[in-house]
Amino acid sequence: MASGSSRSWFIVVPDQELPPGLLTRLRPRAGRVVRYPSGRPWLLGDWAPERMVVASAGEQLLAVAGTSSVTTTDLQARLKGVSAVADVEGALRGVHGSFHVVASLKGRGYVRGSASGACRVHRAVVDGVTVCADRARTLAWLTDAGPDTAQLAARLASALPHPLAGAAMWSAVETVSPGHALHLDPGGSCRTVAWWQAPEAGLPLAEAALALRKALCDAVALRVRPGQVLAADLSGGMDSTSLCFLAAEAGASLVTATLHWEALGNEDQHYARYAADRLPDVESLGFPSAELPPCFAGLERRQDPQEEPSPSLRDREIQQHITHALRARGAPLRLTGHGGDHAVVPPASYIHALLRRNPTLALRHAAGFKAQRRWPLGATARVLLRGGSYPDWLNTARGRLREAAVPLPQCETWGPQPTLPEWASTRAADQFAALLRSAAEQTVPLATDFSRHAWIHQMREAGRIAGLIIDDTTADGLPADSPFCDDTVLDACLSVRSHQAGHPWSYKPLLAAAMGGLVPEHLLLRTTKDHCDIEWYRGIREHRRQLAEWAETSHLVAAGVAEEDGLRRALLSPGLQAGGGAALENTLGVEAWLRDVAAHPVPAYLTHTPRHRYQEPFIDSAAH
Fold first, then answer.
1. pTM of this structure
2. For 383-425, what is each residue's pLDDT tens digit?
3. Whole-number Cα distances in Å, 42 to 36, 91, 248
4. Are the beta carbons of 486 and 219 closer than 8 angstroms?
5. How many helices (H) and strands (E) does the chain have?
6. End-to-end Cα separation, the chain, in angstroms
7. How many CB atoms lie within 10 A of CB 251?
């Protein structure tokens, strides 16, 4: 399947006379349209019929786009309880999955993505008209916007705090923060309003585990067609293994993929084989790394760029190889355990709040983490004792962008400290600092407690990457979906008492409790995690010529956000860099993205023939 040929997209336009140029540009691209009662277009784009459920009643329109449990009949019944924008979320209570919601109620519009950030909403002003879309790049194309150099600078950082993470890469496009919706007024103005709130974190482990088990069961069953072949990662870790057993329980015929890394002591293969032997109706595929493309293969090949730079550049061709093998078995979808680490384990900084409620228990947990993770004593004490607002933390981070990476792990407060690699330019540092300053002046934290804020943020980071994964893999012909990033799963995790889900004496106790009796105990007791360091460095060595060419022709250097000499040293001698592999991967991801944008100025999903072409006048999608 050609890259980009199956990516869906949609935009939302207001119920008014639109600039002729806007429709002229969209008519050849959009294969589907849903209209207002006035006859004007409401939703335009290209999507498979099962990806968009629409209900209407008079001047009321409600659409759910993506993977959801709602049917047309169900949505039509739910719409009866909606008379104003404020009623939409109540009407959708109980619907699960990962999806966008779009509504038009007597001239007032409502657009939102998912709380996890896996589905996002963007807005831009096009010829004086506010237009919303599920893809920032669609709006960039409509506004002829180029990449924002400040966002390029930010993507070089070791970590991106809220709300900078996931911001649109384009200068004229704004991304709506996950958990918020756009309210569109008839006059054309719009405002952002929160539609999601985190649940209270008071459930004991046993109760929260029951809620998580139900949420995961629902999430996996939603993606399973009993008797149909379903692909799934089976790394041997607890996240992917749990999904495999849930999929088998839902009636899937599984074909699983396990990577075998070379490092001595890696245990994935053992645990994956143990799981496969106990799964019914499974074909288990193993992929030794020596038989796969090397890490960073395909750097020279340009593809239609994603919404933002991808952190998975190193294994792009590895995953394409695995995708080909899974598709050959007839699988239409692949389940991945991505997001499990982020969802089921809270940041260890929960000990700060625990100290105020139960000092003895908090000190026990702190001592356990200090021994397990080699936290420095002074840093541990500071986390336990200090407070500080989120704006203060952002401003402090702004002044520490050039600090070297900390050699030993330590407990964070509001999140990992963002730092820039040594090859980032002075201009990049100034632009990133300006973004942090603006965030400090305008941003409200995701929770008053910094550990809970950090937990929600790491969940949203997982959702952001999940969106990139499914977008990239859909273009390769086998979407890789991440049930751990469904909103109902995140809500279930956030309902637990943090000190019971994240303590240092067991590995992922919340997920282990949720999967008890379904996943064999031997698998739930695993505490190790494999790595691919050998393959990573081998891939860098094998692609030194390509990396040298990138250093000489860098788009980052041309944009003014990287220093040429420093970047060359980093690309050719990565083992000497203080920032390690993660810093280099961020940079390579941004460099590759810029090259892809230059090679594909028009999104491929806008150049391919739509699934359903329409003739004038506009054809309502329901007619298909």
1. 0.94
2. 788 778 999 999 999 999 988 765 556 678 899 999 999 999 9
3. 6, 21, 40
4. yes
5. 26, 17
6. 24
7. 15
